[in-house]
Amino acid sequence: MSRPLIAILRGVTPPEATDICAAILEAGINRIEVPLNSPDPFDSIKAMAAAYGDRALIGAGTVLSTDDVGRVAQAGGKLVVSPNCDQRVIVATKTAGMQSWPGVMTPTECFAALKAGADGLKIFPASIPGPDGVKSMRAVLPPGTLVYAVGGAGPENFAQWIAASADGFGIGSAIYKPGDRPEDVSRKAKAIVAAYDQAVQ
Question: Which has fewest Cβ within 10 Å: 81, 116, 166, 197?
Fold first, then answer.
């Protein structure tokens, strides 16, 4: 079962990346991003993509330039997530055959991202518009638009966000913090999966 959850591994290092990735996959999450402000992020992406690219959608977060899009592709990544809506990054991502999830906050940014070819929208930080804001924006978005809430959305309020029409979530520190061991990540990831499964029942 593929759940609409993206594990955000900010701060992960190459030596631990594959073990952390394995723990997350075993827990039932198969979408993973390494933010580019992590140590040697392209090495981590390359290692995870080589080991688990056939089982998971692996890529980068905090992607701010077209040069970085190219480096993600070279590392074997298939997912590009940004905190902002840069149409050049979106177009470069789609040209390289990868999924594009730009960060948006307003209807203007939502439509700009979709026009550039984004696969889905990352409402970030979601705590600012909140569930009510996302529900209001959904009324004007094209049918079928995928909307993920990131920042302020998590296992404690999955149900509230889902009721407001969120399709999925990006989960950062609740699933991984620098220094966490694979067993720590496994425990947290399983709890998040259980909370999500309960919320969608």
Answer: 197
